[in-house]
Amino acid sequence: MTGQRAAREPYTTRFETEVTSIDGREVWLETSYFYGESGGQPADRGTIGGIEVANVRYDDGEHVHVLAEEPSFRVGNRVLCSIDWSFRMYCMRAHTASHVLYGAGRRLLEDLGYGGFDISEEKVRVDLETSTELDDETLLELDTLVNRVVWESRPVTWDDIPVADAREREDIAFNEATEEGAFRRGRLRIVTIGSEDDNGTTNGLVRRDGGSSDPWDVAACGGTHVRNTREVGPVTVLGRSNPGKGLTRVELAVGPRAIDRRETEKRVALSSRRALGVSLEDVGDELERLEGERDELAAEVRSLRRELVETDLERAEPFERDGLKWVATTVAAVDVNEAGEIASGAADDLADIIVIAGDAGSPYAVVATSGSHSAEAVIDDLTDEFGGGGGGSATLAKAGGFDATPAEVVASLTE
C-alpha cells in the first residue's frame, strides 16, 4: 500500500515501537501511526513516551516527530505512543466530508476540477476548478447533497492502483500538485465513497444521482478517512469565495461547529418568522414581497427627489456670466451621480450652463452645459478656488472634496 501507515489504519491510536534516531527534539521511530502533515491535512497530536508531540512532518517517506521538549528516552528504547483520538477523528470526518462535497460538486457543476483543500479547527475549505458560478441556491443544493450522503451511510474504502491505470480512468479525481502524498513507487492511493447500493439499501430516500449505482466519489488521496459516511456526522456548508482565477472556494464546518452554525441559522430563520408574522415556509416569499415594495418606494423617492431638484432649478434666478446664461442651485439628499443626470437633462432647456452643488458625505459640484462652454473648464475653476478634485467632459463634469459649503460654491459663481 502507498502513503502513510496512519492513512491505511486510521483507527489505530496506541502503539509501541522502537526509537531509531534522535536529534534534539526531533525523533524517528521504527514504526509510526502518526499522520505527518500533508496535502492540506494537519499533523496528528499526541504523545511519545509521555512527551507531547508538537508536530509531525512527512519527509521523503519518513516521519519526523517534533516533540515539545527534548526526550529523556534514548535511541533503542521502546516507547509507548498515543495519538489524540479526538483530533484524529475530527480530521478523518473533515477529510471524508471534503470528498463527499466534491462528489456533490460533480453532480451540480460543469467541467469540475480539484484545486486542493485544507483542514483547520474551525472549518474545512475545498477549492474547486469550475466555470459554474456558485450562487446561494447552488450552495444550498451542495449542503443538501452532502448531508443526504452522510445520512445514507455509504461505505468509504481505500486502496492503491498503478498510476498508469489511474491516468486512464476519468472517474478518479486527482491533482498531482496537491496530492503528492498519494503517489508512491508508481502506485496511487485512491479513496472511494461508494453508492447506496453498496449497502444494499437506499434508506427510503429519493436518489439524487439519477439512480446510478456508480460510486459517489473516487479520488486520489493520502489522508485519513472514516469507514462509513455516517461517521462524518453533521456538516454545514458555510459559504464560498474566489481565492484565484478559475477557482471557487467552498467552506464547510463539521461536527460541533456545524451544529453551532445551524443553530445560528435557525435562530435567524425563527426570528425572521416572528418579525414577518408568517410561517417559516413563507419567510422567503414574504421577504421577496417586501423587497419588491422597498424597491418601488425607493424608485418613488428617487422620482420625488428628482422632481424637487428640477423644481429648485426652475425657481433659481438665472444670471449671465461671460455672455452665457447660467443657473446654479444647492440640493440636499442627492448624490453626485443623480445630480449629474438631472443637470444633463436641464442643460438644453433652462440655460447654457447648469451648476448643482450638494453634500453627500463631502461637498461636490456638477456642471452640465449645452456645448456652448466647457463643463470641465468650470470644474477646473472651482477646484482651483476650493480645492478637491474632479473632471469630466465638455458637456458634463463633476468634482468633490471642496473646502467650502455648497452654498459658498454657488455664491462664488454669481460674484
UniProtKB/TrEMBL annotation:
Domain of life according to the entry: Archaea
Gene Ontology molecular function: alanine-tRNA ligase activity; aminoacyl-tRNA deacylase activity; ATP binding; tRNA binding
Limits of the Alanyl-transfer RNA synthetases family profile domain: 1-264
SMART domains: tRNA_SAD
Alphabetized UniProt keyword annotations: Aminoacyl-tRNA synthetase, ATP-binding, Coiled coil, Ligase, Nucleotide-binding, Protein biosynthesis, RNA-binding, tRNA-binding, Zinc
Stretches assigned to coiled coil: 280-314
Gene3D superfamilies from the UniProt entry: 2.40.30.130, 3.10.310.40, Threonyl-trna Synthetase, Chain A, domain 2
InterPro entries for the chain: Ala-tRNA-synth_IIc_core (IPR018165), Ala-tRNA-synth_IIc_N (IPR018164), Ala-tRNA_ligase (IPR050058), Thr/Ala-tRNA-synth_IIc_edit (IPR018163), Transl_B-barrel_sf (IPR009000), tRNA_SAD (IPR012947)
Entry-linked PROSITE patterns: AA_TRNA_LIGASE_II_ALA
One Gene Ontology term from the biological process aspect of the record: alanyl-tRNA aminoacylation
Recorded family membership: Belongs to the class-II aminoacyl-tRNA synthetase family.
PANTHER family assigned to the protein according to its UniProt record, in alphabetical order: ALANINE--TRNA LIGASE, CYTOPLASMIC, ALANYL-TRNA SYNTHETASE
Identification of the protein by name: Threonyl/alanyl tRNA synthetase SAD
